[in-house]
Specification:
Layout: E1 13-21, E2 24-28, E3 33-53, E4 60-83, E5 86-93, E6 96-107, E7 117-126, E8 129-136, E9 142-151, E10 158-159, E11 161-163, H1 171-175, E12 177-178, E13 184-194, E14 199-208, E15 226-237, E16 240-251
Antiparallel strand pairs: 1-3, 2-3, 3-4, 4-5, 4-6, 5-8, 6-7, 7-11, 8-9, 9-13, 10-12, 13-14, 14-15, 15-16
C-alpha cells in the first residue's frame, strides 16, 4: 500500500464493529395476527490505523484512532396467518444515531505547535431496515419462505469527526470518512423440512449487493457484493427449542483505481 502514501510504508488496520443485544417481546392479538417488538442495545467501536496526508498530500504521517459508544434502537414486526398454509410477515428496524467518543494520535505532526494526541468524537447513523416475507406450507413437513429486504444505506453519507484539541481542527476534514452509500433491496429464500416431530432441517440462499457504488469504494471501509448459502438444524421438545445455523458467503472481487491524490483513501 506504499503507493497510496507517497511511497512510504505505514501500518493499516481499520475496523467498525457493532455488538447488539436484543430482548424480544411478542403478543398474539388474535388467532390470525401476532405483533413483535425488540429493544436493540448496540455497542459500536471504530479502530483506525493508517497513514493520513497533510493538506496538499505532499507528506504523510501515521494516524491511530479508537472510539466507541452506545445506542438504543428498536424493531417492530407483525405476522398474519391467512390459514395453515400461508403466512405473511413485515418488519421494520428503526434507524439510530450515536456518538463514538475516544481519542486519536498522529505521530509525526507535532511540529508547528500541534499536539500528538487529541480526544475526539464521531457521529454514526445506522440505517433503517424494512422487510416483507411470505411463508408457504405445501404439506405438513415442508415450509418455503421468501423475504424482500430494504436497507436505507443513504444515511451513511459520511462519518464526520470532531477533535477537542484546537490545533487538530484542520485534521478533521482529512480524517472524515466519506461514504455516500446507496440504498439496497435484497431477496432471500429458504425452506424448512421437518424430519420428525422434534427435528427439522433448514436451508436458504440470498444475495446482498454492496452499498458502496464503484466510484465510491474506500480502502478504509471496503464493501463487497456477495451470494450466500445457509444451512441449519432445529430441535424442539415441548417448550424447549435449540437451533444451529451456518452461513457460507462468497464475496465478489472489486477494484477501483485512485486517480486523484487529493481524494486518496490514504
Amino acid at each position: 500500500l506504499a503507493p497510496l502514501s507517497g511511497g512510504e510504508s505505514f501500518a493499516w488496520d481499520v475496523s467498525l464493529d457493532r455488538l447488539t443485544f436484543s430482548p424480544v417481546f411478542s403478543i398474539r392479538i388474535s388467532t390470525r395476527l401476532s405483533l413483535g417488538f425488540s429493544i436493540n442495545l448496540n455497542y459500536l467501536r471504530m479502530d483506525r490505523l493508517h497513514p493520513l496526508a497533510d493538506g496538499d498530500g505532499s507528506a504523510h504521517f501515521q494516524y491511530f484512532e479508537n472510539m466507541s459508544g452506545l445506542a438504543i434502537g428498536g424493531t417492530m414486526g407483525a405476522l398474519y396467518r391467512f390459514d395453515d398454509r400461508l403466512r405473511l410477515g413485515v418488519m421494520v428496524k428503526l434507524p439510530f444515531s450515536t456518538s463514538l467518543n475516544g481519542f486519536a494520535t498522529a505521530a509525526g505532526i507535532g511540529q508547528a505547535g500541534e499536539t500528538v494526541q487529541s480526544d475526539g468524537e464521531r457521529t454514526i447513523t445506522w440505517p433503517m431496515v424494512a422487510g416483507i416475507g411470505i411463508a408457504v406450507r405445501p404439506n405438513d413437513r415442508l415450509i418455503v419462505t421468501a423475504d424482500l429486504v430494504y436497507t436505507g444505506w443513504h444515511v451513511l453519507e459520511h462519518i464526520p469527526v470532531t477533535y477537542r484539541d484546537p490545533t487538530w481542527v484542520p485534521l478533521a476534514a482529512l480524517s472524515e470518512l466519506p461514504l455516500k452509500w446507496e440504498d439496497r433491496l435484497d431477496l432471500k429464500i429458504g425452506f424448512e423440512f421437518r424430519l420428525s416431530s422434534v427435528l427439522s432441517l433448514r436451508g436458504g440462499f440470498y444475495t446482498e449487493r454492496s452499498a458502496a457504488p464503484e466510484h465510491q469504494l474506500n480502502i478504509l471501509l471496503p464493501t463487497v457484493s456477495c451470494k450466500a448459502l445457509t444451512f441449519g438444524v432445529g430441535f424442539e421438545q415441548g417448550d424447549l427449542g435449540i437451533d444451529f445455523a451456518v452461513e457460507i458467503i462468497d464475496g465478489n472481487k472489486r477494484q477501483h483505481g485512485v486517480t486523484d491524490k487529493r481524494h486518496s483513501p490514504a
